[in-house]
């Protein structure tokens, strides 16, 4: 019997449940191979009058992302809109939309946010690059530079990969120099790097702190986004 099956048995025998217990079940289903069960639990909470909170929605993010359904994303968006949840939940919504390929909706959520943090910027930039919207990603970098923001390594890698994809050596140099200046590049060492970026640096002669010894071919390698959203 797997851990989620054992958790189901315990849950079924509980005389009473509350939001914390339901959130734990949603998280378990989201991180397992049962994303539909996570959704079922979420709607079960609402039917039984258990008030959902930000943790409920954050735990649901991996499940909706795995289903890659725009319909479920929009239903999730509707709950967020009517209840007015936190910035972390909105960041999760952006992540879900771009994983479903709905880049326009992800972009709309980002630009309508009243307050953004480094996760907001990194998530939307990564989404643009993963969906081939390289010009949009580079445009966001210009905003980052203009506002002198110090962001996380995901933003740096996204901007660099966008420049590599469009073959803009000067832009890549500008991006690299900026993130060195704001001390972001030193943090990139903790990530598996994309081969595209490594090759681009070698070909363009840009002297980067990016470790070229990595053999990763996956842009997202080393970032477990499912666990990440459930831990926010």
From TrEMBL:
Regions crossing the membrane: none
Biological process terms in GO annotation: RNA modification
PPR repeats mapped onto the chain: 18-52, 117-151
Pfam families: PPR
Keywords linked to the UniProt accession: Repeat
InterPro entries found in the cross-reference section: PPR_At4g14850-like_plant (IPR046960), PPR_rpt (IPR002885), TPR-like_helical_dom_sf (IPR011990)
UniProt-recorded Gene Ontology molecular function terms: RNA binding
NCBIfam families with a match to the protein in the record: PPR
Classification via PANTHER family: PENTACOTRIPEPTIDE-REPEAT REGION OF PRORP DOMAIN-CONTAINING PROTEIN, PENTATRICOPEPTIDE REPEAT-CONTAINING PROTEIN
Protein's name according to its UniProt entry: Pentacotripeptide-repeat region of PRORP domain-containing protein
Species this chain originates from: Papaver somniferum (Opium poppy)
């Amino acid at each position: 019997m797997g851990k989620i099956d054992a958790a189901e048995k315990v849950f079924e025998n509980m005389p009473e449940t509350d939001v914390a217990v339901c959130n734990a079940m949603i998280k378990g289903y989201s991180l397992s191979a049962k994303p539909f069960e996570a959704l079922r639990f979420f709607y079960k909470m609402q039917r039984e009058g258990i008030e959902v909170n930000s943790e409920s929605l954050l735990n649901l993010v991996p499940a909706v992302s795995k289903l890659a359904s725009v319909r479920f994303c929009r239903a999730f968006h509707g709950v967020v809109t009517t209840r007015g949840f936190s910035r972390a939940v909105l960041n999760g919504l952006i992540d879900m939309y771009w994983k479903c390929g709905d880049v326009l909706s992800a972009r709309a959520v980002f630009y309508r946010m009243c307050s953004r943090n480094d996760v907001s910027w990194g998530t939307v930039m990564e989404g643009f690059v993963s969906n081939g919207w390289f010009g949009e990603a580079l445009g966001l970098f210009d905003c980052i530079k203009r506002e002198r923001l110090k962001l996380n390594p995901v933003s740096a890698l996204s901007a660099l990969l966008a420049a590599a994809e469009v073959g803009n050596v000067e832009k890549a140099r500008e991006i690299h120099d900026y993130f060195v200046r704001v001390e972001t590049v030193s943090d990139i060492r903790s990530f598996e790097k994309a081969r595209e970026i490594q090759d681009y640096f070698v070909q363009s002669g840009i002297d980067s702190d990016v470790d070229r010894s990595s053999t990763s071919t996956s842009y997202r390698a080393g970032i477990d986004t499912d666990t990440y959203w459930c831990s926010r």
